[in-house]
Amino acid sequence: MNLISLSLCFLTIPLGFFSTHIEGKKNQKTWKLRSDASYITWEVIQEGKRLTRGWKDFTTAHDLRIGDIVIFKHEGDMVFHVTPFGPSCCEIQYTHPNIIKEEAEADDAHSFSFDYYFLAEVTASNLKEDKLYLSVEATTCTALNKQCQEIILVNKEGNSWTVSLRFSESDGMFYIRRGWRKFCLDNRCAIGDLFVFNVVGDGKTTPLMCVIQRG
C-alpha cells in the first residue's frame, strides 16, 4: 500500500515502493489504475520515479484536488486499485460510477463512519521515550491487528510519516514507537498539544492514523 499526497500533473512514487518493486525491473513503465469510480482502466506512464502521462487525466476524471490522498493497492502485473481520500482521510465514496462525493466533513469527528478515533496529548515523557500508547479501546478497532508492524500518521495537510506499531501483551494495548517524536518535531508540536486521530484501514493493509483536529 502506498500513501501519496496528491499532485495533479504528476505523482512521485514513494522511495520504498520504488526500490522494492520497480527499480531494476524491465517492462514496468505502464501502470494500470482502477477504482470504484469508473469501469475504465486508466493507463499511466512511469518516467523515472514519477507517474506522468495519463496521471492528469486520471485525477481530472476522479475530481481529485491538491491535498487529497490516494492509496494504491498492487494487484499484480502493474495493476493497481486506487482508493481516494480527502485531506482529513475521509474516504471519497462512489454512489454510482463517475459520481463522487465526500462522505464526511473534516472538522466533525462524530460524523466519521470509521470505527475508532481518539485523543492524544503530546507529553514530555512520550517525546523522550518516542512512544505513544493508544487507548485500550483500540483493541476493538478492525483497522488494527497484532500482526501490524507499521502505521502511517497523516497530518491535515496530507503529509505522512510511517512509524512502528506494536502490541504490548502485558498492557493489552497498542503503541507507536520510532517515529512519534519525529512526527511531533516536524509538525512543530509543543508539550500539551492535543490531536484527534481517526484510524482508517481494513485490517489487512497498513492502517492510517489521520489528524482530524488539532488543539
Structure description:
The chain is mostly beta strands and 215 residues long. The chain has 2 domains: 2-102, At1g16640 B3 domain (Beta Barrel); 109-214, DNA-binding pseudobarrel domain (At1g16640 B3 domain, Beta Barrel). The protein has helices at 15-22, 55-61, 124-129, 180-186, and strands spanning 2-5, 11-12, 30-35, 38-47, 50-51, 69-76, 79-85, 92-96, 99-102, 117-121, 131-133, 150-154, 160-168, 173-177, 194-200, 208-214. A hairpin with a 2-residue loop joins β8 (92-96) and β9 (99-102). The longest helix has 8 residues, at 15-22. It starts with a strand and ends with a strand. Residues 94-114 have low confidence and may be disordered.
Task: Give the topology.
Blueprint lengths: L1 E4 L5 E2 L2 H8 L7 E6 L2 E10 L2 E2 L3 H7 L7 E8 L2 E7 L6 E5 L2 E4 L14 E5 L2 H6 L1 E3 L16 E5 L5 E9 L4 E5 L2 H7 L7 E7 L7 E7 L1
Parallel strand pairs: 3-7, 12-16
Antiparallel strand pairs: 1-6, 2-5, 3-4, 4-5, 6-7, 8-9, 10-15, 11-14, 12-13, 13-14, 15-16
Kindly report how far apart the N and C termini lie.
30 Å
Supply the number of structural domains: 2
Rg result: 18 Å
Poorly predicted spans: 94-114
Order of helices and strands: EEHEEEHEEEEEHEEEEHEE
Question: Beta-strand level of the residues, as a percent range?
Answer: 35-45%
List keywords for this structure.
215 residues, At1g16640 B3 domain, 4 helices, 16 strands
Task: Give a concise summary.
It is built from 4 helices and 16 strands.
